Amino acid sequence: MRNGRIASLLAVGAVATFVSTPAPAPAMAAASSQSAAAKAPLLPYTQQKPQWQRCDAESPAAYQCTTLKVPLDYSDPGGRKIGLAISRLKASSAKERRGVLLLNPGGPGGPGLDMPVTPELDFPEEVKSHYDLIGFDPRGVGQSSPVSCGLTADEQNFERPYRAETFAKDVEWARTVADKCQAKAGDTLRHLTTRNTARDMDVIRAVLGEKKISYLGFSYGTYLGAVYTQMFPRRTDRFVLDSATDPARVWQGMFQAMAEGTEPAFARWSEWTARRHATYGLGSTPAEVRKSFWDLVAQADRNPIDADGKLLTGDGIRAGHAAFFHVQEAAEWVAWLKKAAEDTKPAPSGTPERAPSPVTPTLARDVPSDNDAASAWAVLCADTRTWPRDPEQYRRDAIRDKARYPLYGDFASNIKPCAFWKQGSEPATTVNNKVSALILQNEWDPATPLAGGQGMHRALRGSRMVTVAGGEGHVVYGSNSCADKSSTVYLTTGRLPAKDLTCQTPAGQQDKF
């Protein structure tokens, strides 16, 4: 889930000053492993007094922002410091207030400062009365000491299918991204890890004077939340993880999971579309529908399709794999492409340039245009030491996975900048605990497929999982009343469902399937 940045987050507040008010200090690993001496260097951070200000003139006055200071490197707390922008919308009832609910939109690289007031998160009054809603831009993102690698729009495009004739260029792209990031921000990027962001969350907890935090995280934010539960189990209160990734598959496996999940979604789409041949004209059997699609891909490779003024190749069509998780939208899209192909005139000789992937717009002042990509690659590459270093391994994986998962397999397994990235500051976290959590998952999620949520459920042995049968798309919260009710009950009472729960798709959408 990526929320748009509010245009003027200029009044983030002065850097908070250090005072002597006691507050629980965050540990650098599980709380039980820390001695008082080890905690002492962090006291200047945990005892900051926030200087809250109204975030901007267009937002509610109750929506306030400030900036904290945290160590870039928690193993050297006296060294370089970075800013951490946080926001707060106070609980609507002092009597019912339980504590704080930290929010993360996903990514990695997603800004979350505006989440307490974003319209998409329409919290019920019971939740707003129980919690101060806390947003924050993770380290290196948005208003939190944003990083840049100086990447061009094409260098930010990671949707790269495998072709033997272009693989050398893909290797050069991956090497260039890694080299530019190392040259411009290498000393910073190796510390932009999920573990350090979890430590930042614990500084936020301590500064706010809370013994525990509750949390709602989406997509990548589910992994961040899970890492926090592993590092700080005694400071974990009520955690809701929406659209989860499998913590055992970070991060190369995350891309590959998307390819794996696309194939059953494509099969489901072909069956659905065949039953509606009179509407879409793509075939009256699943096999005919699939043939129509692959014929269209082959035709676009020979003669790129003029799609609203942009030439779309077969690879460009395959890059839209996420569409097939929404059966009706995908049928309309493919039928439209088929019509566009019939109207397309032969293209001039030469291969059309690959259209860059959409780049998340940066509306806040002083945020580099490549901040989204730079901060995302930092986490994806520095979080784990399992990325292959040999480009030929990526070639073999891409060839293998294109055969296994024809729609997206080669995109997912092709080379990434992580092949050349400097090692992160520490190994990845193994998530395996009994901390309470609620996992929400759509059955048909293109970014974090159902198997990812099931993997998270296995790792968090104290969790319950709510699956929306027939649910389409990425992010559950706010789209299914049954799942929302389970979340509200858990956040306001602490009661998890007695067992894993299956919610049904809303009645108004059932005739789609």
Describe this structure in words.
With 513 residues, the protein is α/β, with parallel strands linked by helices. Strands 3-4-5-7-6-8-9-12-13-14 form a ten-stranded mixed beta sheet, sandwiched between helices. A hairpin with an 8-residue loop joins strand 3 and strand 4. Helix 7 crosses helix 9 (286-302) and helix 9 (286-302) crosses helix 11. Helices cover 36% and strands 16% of the residues. It starts with 16 loop residues before the first strand and ends with a helix. The chain is built from 17 helices and 14 strands. The longest helix is centred in the middle third of the chain and has 23 residues, at 167-189. The radius of gyration is 23 Å and the shape is globular.
Describe the secondary structure blueprint for this structure.
Elements: E1 17-18, H1 36-39, H2 43-46, E2 48-49, E3 53-54, E4 63-71, E5 81-89, E6 99-104, H3 125-130, E7 131-136, H4 167-189, H5 194-207, E8 213-218, H6 220-231, E9 236-242, H7 252-274, H8 277-280, H9 286-302, E10 305-307, E11 310-312, H10 314-318, H11 327-343, H12 371-382, H13 391-404, H14 409-413, E12 433-444, H15 450-459, E13 460-472, H16 481-493, E14 501-504, H17 507-510
Parallel strand pairs: 6-7, 6-8, 8-9, 9-12, 12-13, 13-14
Antiparallel strand pairs: 1-2, 3-4, 4-5, 5-7, 10-11
Helix pairs in contact: 5-6, 7-9, 7-11, 9-11
List its salient traits.
513 residues, alpha/beta, 10-stranded mixed beta sheet, two-stranded antiparallel sheet, disordered N terminus, 17 helices
